[in-house]
Amino acid sequence: MDIVVFFVASGCAIASAIAVVAQKNPFVSALALLANLASLAALMLLLEAQFVAAAQIIVYAGAVMVMFLFVIAYVGPRGEIGGGVRKPWLVALSVFAALLIAVEVIVVVFGASLGAVASVDTDYGSPAAIGKALVTDYLLAFEVVSVILFMAAVAGVVFGTGGRPVRLSTEQVLAKEGESAVARRREASRAALDAARDSTTGESAR
Amino acid sequence: MSVGIPLFLGVSAILFTIGLIGVLLRRSPLTILLSLEVMLNAVNLSLVAFSRQIGGSDGQVFALVVMGIAAAEVVVGLGLVVAMTRRSMVLDTDELRTLNG
Q1: How many CA atoms lie within 13 A of A126 on its CB side?
Q2: Is residue A182 in some structural domain?
């Protein structure tokens, strides 16, 4: 039973990872990443890490992916512009280097004698056990992660709000350029409106 | 447990490679960030697998910390993407060569 679940989940994980990398549309990539996260959570459940699997679903699928989808929706079709491919020798070199790492890891993993898997009791991987480890042995790492998350939130706000195009009010335009500039702008916008109206009526008549 | 730990590590290595190819070859910053997530999750899987091998909870705590760092990295990366969009720059990593020596 375990082996069936393992092969189904790992097949889904690998297929969805390929979809994440290969899709042109970032929206489809993000949805494929959701499938990848879900199958990885199933693999973690096979390893009896219940709390990490639940956190994977809640933190990634619930929070991080929603943020991803919001930004992809905000960026819109501009996100697809960079879908092109590099020079052929660069592609070949990158794939070769990546496959080299994969072969290396697989040879090491299957060549090493890891020994017998430790036997664990039912408490293993439960929220209580993980929480106890987090606030006793790993308290410093826990606190450092919270500080880093805070800094990242500040950085996100700073990056996200900069560079707004400045819009001047009528008074500011008057102070800067004088009465004639405002009149000229009004005239230009009225002309643009008229042109737009003409083109739409012309199209409907046609 | 009928599935061996090396099989999990092999799946983790394959996922890591797929993500690495995505980071190296794609040009859209959004897709690069998504491929980075694939890589980080592959490493998380191997951390949990090693944790199961030795029967301790250390690897799982490590995986949770990696999740937190990944969330921070996504916030900064998406903030950069939003900033690029607001300055109406092209979302293409090959075009960002102002600092290129």
Answers
A1: 7
A2: yes
